[in-house]
Amino acid sequence: MWAVPFAHADNNRLNRSVVSNVYTVQRQAGCTNPLTVSPQLQLAAQWHTRDVLNNRVLQGDIGSDGSTPQDRAAAAGFHGEVGETVAINPALAMNNLEIIRQWYYDPADYAVMSDCAYSLIGVWTENMLDRTVVVAVYGDPSPPGAD
């Protein structure tokens, strides 16, 4: 009996493209800071991506356990302020331009994505045959109250 090969998508290239596109949006908004990938924010993005992928009633920032982006980032070890954008596509695949367009033309998502205080980011993408979810978690590493 032959085993059917299991295909697992490697979304690292897509995730890096999203980071690059967010960097471009920040530059267009006048930001001058670098945009650096944070392992803690990437972990928080991974947790929420998998939650949204597997719980179809979820459509935004609140997790199935009631957690917020701030809760997940803190649990992942990040202690600054965070924002989040979520893209959902009812198909197996999604490209970086589709993702950025969703966020760019949504005023709330654009405000998060173009906020110059967010110099750290974590992006995670997961797919099913009929659903792709992308989560970006943005972080301001400044201690709370430091202006």
From TrEMBL:
CDD domains: CAP_bacterial. It comes from the Bacteria. Coiled coil: none annotated. InterPro entries: CAP_dom, CAP_sf. Residues 27-124 form the SCP domain. Pfam families: CAP (PF00188). SUPFAM superfamilies: PR-1-like. PANTHER family: SCP DOMAIN-CONTAINING PROTEIN. This is CAP domain-containing protein. It comes from Mycobacterium deserti. The lineage of its organism: Bacteria, Bacillati, Actinomycetota, Actinomycetes, Mycobacteriales.
